[in-house]
Amino acid sequence: MNKPIRKAVLPVAGLGTRFLPATKAVPKEMLTIVDRPIIQYVVDEARAAGIEHIVFVTGRNKHVIEDHFDMAYELEDTLRARNKAAALELLEKHRPQPGSTSFTRQQAPLGLGHAIWCSRDIIGDEPFAILLPDVIIKSKVSCLRQMVDLYEKTGGNIIAVEEVPDDQTHQYGIVELAEQINDKSSRISNMVEKPAPGTAPSNLMITGRYILQPEIFDLLSSQGQGAGGEIQLTDSMISLMSNQSFSSLKFEGRSYDCGNKPGFLSANIAFGMDDPALAQELVPFMQEMLQHPVAAE
Ligand code: UTP
Which residues are in the Nucleotidyl transferase domain (predicted)? Predict the structure, then answer.
């Protein structure tokens, strides 16, 4: 039987330079999509997949993330005194159990691979999930849940993938596929970070959700700098592929890369449209914007 996936790592130590000046004092992960910080969507996805413990790899100026997942005594007491039961329930629903989170600091933003390596002692010798908190996924079933379901059948390492137009493959990490497992999944034979236009081995991009075996940590500990002078997770995954299986999963749902402005704004619209009261106001506004962009100012 495959060892269960109990722990997840959320690397949140990046600088978020694409959102300056917003991210000068507020971590990118705390920017809001409708009424929840980005990071809350990702934690909710992990918990919906049965994750018991979440490891946040943080950096300087990120302590507000720790506060967000803690009990806010004064606020909750005030809400209780004012009989605001719905607001209290909302806070309780989103708060992890005491002892089910860990925070460790990366100290220097040396790359995603280095951030993941910083979680090695807390993860220990068991398979684990990684969720890049820039990416939120709108789906009926949590994307990580879909991955865990596949993992329970195949074991090994699993990477969530999504189709992108051929002319955009050079912007992403792209997988090369070998034999098919089923209509949503195949063995992965290779991965390429940002392939030159026209050279991509497929149109399936790596979405930011991984299930990995703990042997990745040994590889990360000696991984040299890769693309952009950073320690890259992809480079160690390629090494691990020579003696362990990697499978892709075309999950059901759609990802929004909130690490860039178009993705962040699209996510606000897409998740806002889920609320019928908001949709009623948003739809006429968007129609007006499309017809008369200047008049809508
Ligand atoms: P990104 O490169 O997209 O995030 O890293 P960034 O560096 O915060 O953003 P920009 O480019 O400056 O705007 C992808 C994920 O990896 C984490 C980031 O926090 C993000 O969730 N990361 C990246 C780390 O935790 N540490 C690093 O050294 C690099």
Answer: 8-268
Q: Whose CA is nearest to atom 20 of ligand 1?
A: 14
Burial, 295: exposed, middle or buried (Cβ in 10 Å; 0-12, 13-18, 19+)?
A: exposed
CATH number at residue 30: 3.90.550.10
Helix H, strand E, coil C: the string for 18-30 is: HHCCCCCCCCHHH
Q: Is 234 helix (H, G, I), strand (E, B) or coil?
A: helix
Is residue 2 included in any domain, yes or no? no
Cβ proximity of 151 and 142 under 8 Å: no
Q: How many CB atoms lie within 10 A of CB 75?
A: 13
0.90 exceeded by the pTM?
A: yes
Domain around 103: 7-291
Tokens describing residue 199: 């050279």
- For the stretch 115-151, pLDDT in tens is 999 999 999 999 999 999 999 999 999 999 999 999 9
Task: From the CA of 19, give the closest atom in ligand 1.
Answer: 13
- Does 146 map to a domain? yes
Domain assignment of residue 296, yes or no: no
Residue 297 within a domain = no
Tokens of 268: 């606000």
Tokens 């809400």 correspond to what residue? 79
Peptide bond into 21 cis (omega under 30): yes
Q: Is the CB of 177 under 6 A from ligand 1?
A: no
Closest by alpha carbon to 128, among 204, 181, 207, 49?
Answer: 49
Q: Verify whether ligand 1 is closer than 6 Å to residue 15 (CB atom).
A: yes
Contact criterion met (CB below 8 Å) for 272 and 278? yes
Pocket flag, ligand 1, residue 208 (CB < 6 Å): no
Tens of pLDDT, residues 166-195: 999 999 999 999 999 999 999 999 999 889
Secondary structure (3-state) at 58: strand
